Amino acid sequence: MDGNDAMKLILPIAGFAVGVSLLLYFWPRPPKVFLTRERKRAQVADVYELSHDTKRIRLSLGSPTTTLGLPVGKHLAIYAPNPAKCISSGLWNGKPDPDKGKEEIERKYTPVTGNEQPGYVDLVIKIYKPGKVTMPDGKETHWEDGGKMGLFLDSKQPGDWIDVIGWSFCGRCVFFGSHMGLGDEAMKLGVRYFQINPHVSWKFIGGFSSPL
Ligand SMILES: Cc1cc2nc3c(=O)[nH]c(=O)nc-3n(C[C@H](O)[C@H](O)[C@H](O)COP(=O)(O)OP(=O)(O)OC[C@H]3O[C@@H](n4cnc5c(N)ncnc54)[C@H](O)[C@@H]3O)c2cc1C
Question: At what angle do helices 173-180 and 184-196 cross, to 10 degrees?
Answer without folding.
Answer: 90
